[in-house]
Amino acid sequence: MDLSRVPKIKNTDSNNFFLLAGPCAIEGEEMALRIAERVVKITDDLKIPYVFKGSFRKANRSRIDSFTGIGDEKALKILEKVSKTFGVPTVTDIHEASDAAFAAEYVDILQIPAFLVRQTDLVVAAAKTGKVVNLKKGQFMSPGAMKHAAKKVKDSGNDLVMVTDRGTMFGYQDMIVDFRGIPEMREFATTVLDVTHSLQQPNQTSGVTGGRPDMIETIARAGIVNNVDGLFIETHFDPANAKSDGANMLHLDHLEKLLTNLVAIRQTVNGL
Hints:
The protein is of the alpha/beta class. It has one domain (about 5-270): Aldolase class I (TIM Barrel, Alpha-Beta Barrel). The chain is built from eight helices and 13 strands. The chain has helices at about 30-45, 70-85, 95-105, 120-125, 145-155, 180-185, 215-225, 255-270, and strands at about 20, 50-55, 90-95, 110, 130-135, 160-165, 170, 175, 190-195, 200, 210, 230-235, 250. The strands form three sheets. It has an eight-stranded parallel β-barrel, surrounded by six helices. The chain has a two-stranded antiparallel ribbon with strand order 7-8. Strand 3, helix 3 (about 95-105) and strand 4 (about 110) form a beta-alpha-beta unit. The longest helix is centred in the first third of the chain and has 18 residues, at about 30-45.
């Protein structure tokens, strides 16, 4: 997919990886704008094409009392405000076929969650909006199997598709990234590595997903070395008190150093 076809995206001529980053969930307007402002400044300085990420609703939760959102339309309007304020595209995940057209009124990229990527009605509904579709690789799927999900989008008349690896289940409570999958998926679609979700530790007895944020740079570096097209990183200025996925998010204060290092690695890889 030609990255320049993503509305409002900048720095596409920098020969850099692109970045999807933001909080796991939209918790409110102030927090979304605060995170977006910081990430936009960092990515503009480093010439990284940037897409702001935020879930308008969290449907896949371990417990019934887990945070699910502040209201669908309210959260989508915040995503729209982020886009208009900072001139960047936005991405959010959808969970039902009826979400597709609704969310497409506010965001530029529709994301299909990993657990739902085999749901044909959902994938087709996203494709038919004409928006870019980001397909998360199921934790239970091989990289090669994702070509069938990507083909569903293309067979629906939409060639704006990318796939994202977010790790594979390893036992009950851990995830691994098989980096052999990056070149395999790049054969049929623009490929993103979801760094932070790949470090989740699901199925904890507390009902709250754990994580290994100390390994974020390790996974991200390996992705860049293996020529991944883009990175997906969830970040927050207060991960410990984030309402979703705080255990595996990157603290916003650490993002600039991480991206600076990754850009340097990408420049080296580009010169090989």
